[in-house]
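#lab-general

N.A. 3:47 PM
ok so I finally got the sequence cleaned up, no stray characters, all 381 residues accounted for. can someone with queue access submit it? mine expired

B.Y. 3:52 PM
send it over

N.A. 3:53 PM
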Amino acid sequence: MVATIIDGKKQIPFLRGMLAHYLIEHGFTFQEAYGVADRVRRGLQKVKDIPAKEMAEMVRTFAVKEFGDRAVGDGVFWEPTARQIFVEDGENRTLFSQERLADSLHATGLDHDLAHEIARRVEVDLLSTDQEVIARKNLVKQIIQLLKKEGGDAFAERFRTWYRFRNEDRHKPLVVLIGGASGVGKTSVSVSLANQLRISRVVSTDAIRQIMRLMISPDLMPALHASSYTAWKVAGAVSMGDTHPVIAAFREQVMRVGVGVKAIIERALEENDSIIIDGVHLLPDLIDLKPFLNDAVFVWVNLHIEDSKQYAERFKRRGKQAEKRSAHRYIENIDTILQIQQHILSIGKEHKVLAYENTDFEETTQNLLMHIMDRLHKAFE
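B.Y. 4:20 PM
back already:
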């Protein structure tokens, strides 16, 4: 929920970037400004509407508490600044936004702080001139030049690729597949990527399996109605030659759910929409993507956690966050889950699927963003 500032007849949504920009203009550093803005935002989490005077006083209070008597003006950060820069693209004009630019830079895998610092410097450079309108192509050139200097050629090229993907109508959609065993953080990473890449379709194979369960009786497909790591215990789960029953039952479940995965991909491509799919039921030898390879840019990765103790701790944290997902059943089956993880990684390696150990969420997301940009760049070439 975003708090709304009530200023007379005007209703202005609170924006962290707007407040940070105001503080920077009053002599705060980038880190200081965003630190204060973050604290104010947290203070407004349960607030729906706030009068203008209270909002201004809140800004002054947080700033004084952190930095003493440093001047912060009247605290009315939502009023338009003396100068605004418009970005022109053909007949369209939009207001330049430091926050939106920082988000675009971060989407290329650039470090969060550096992304905001570069966006701030771009705005300062724009305001230092007399121009009120800048052509989008010239702005992009300016951003790329600064990126080359501060981040290197690779990040500059990734930004150029991201800009092209976002602004060209004629390009293939992006399909990101994130595999891995239960509890490695697939869903959290998927949601983060979707926010960064502005992809509205995010689907879990667990959701696909749940729909299939409603349509197909347990008597017909018993393995479908169990967890990936307990499917081998249900009636009907048998070994396939020398394959261990755990893996045999898991692969049977993957084959069933894979039908739904391919249907979801096919529908997205028909509508020319990008999509992210995450789940344990993603094995490249059982989900044939060859019919779709000419219609989309595919990025397939696997996440994993090698340390069993760290794995167990993650299940405990997840159990506290979601009451219906008891940590005990995961921990009791940790050996089976690790066995499935090894199978996923082994099949992935055979099919050249990149694997990332997800011990640091931010680092994993950043690495995946860079990998996706590099994959898009190769596709454009």
